[in-house]
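From the methods appendix. Each design record in this collection lists the tokenized structure first, followed by the designed amino acid sequence. Records were kept in a plain field format so they could be parsed without special tools. The example shown here is representative of the layout used throughout.

RECORD:
FOLD TOKENS (123 positions):
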């Protein structure tokens, strides 16, 4: 069974840092594009960052550029989201997702999803 499990969320003050981790199991995700999305109550799920299967290509939503970094460790079937200089508006449930093919920003393109991890940034 395919499974994505995220962890690393929590409560942090504005300006602080967190690192989210997503571990994939059930199949080899080394050939998959991996993305991070976030969602607040009543809002649509928002693209945050994506990394290609090779790790050579990344893309970010403008609001996190220069603050967040996505990376992957293929040997561990793991993808990370390093979040620095956090702001209250970064507060959301963060989801890891996987898809075949090229990098994409639409949640509809992704086939596999984790259960989400809460990130709360206090002002």
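DESIGN:
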């Amino acid at each position: 069974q395919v499974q994505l499990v995220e962890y690393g969320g929590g409560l942090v003050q504005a300006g602080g840092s967190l690192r989210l981790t997503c571990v994939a199991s059930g199949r080899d995700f080394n050939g998959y594009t991996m993305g991070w999305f976030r969602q607040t109550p009543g809002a649509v799920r928002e693209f945050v960052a994506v990394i290609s299967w090779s790790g050579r290509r990344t893309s970010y939503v403008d609001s996190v550029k220069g603050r967040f970094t996505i990376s992957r460790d293929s040997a561990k079937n793991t993808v990370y989201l390093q979040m620095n200089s956090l702001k209250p508006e970064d507060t959301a449930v963060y989801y890891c997702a996987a898809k075949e093919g090229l990098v994409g920003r639409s949640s509809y393109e992704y086939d596999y999803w984790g259960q989400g991890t809460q990130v709360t940034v206090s002002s």
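APPENDIX NOTE: The longest strand covers residues 18-25.
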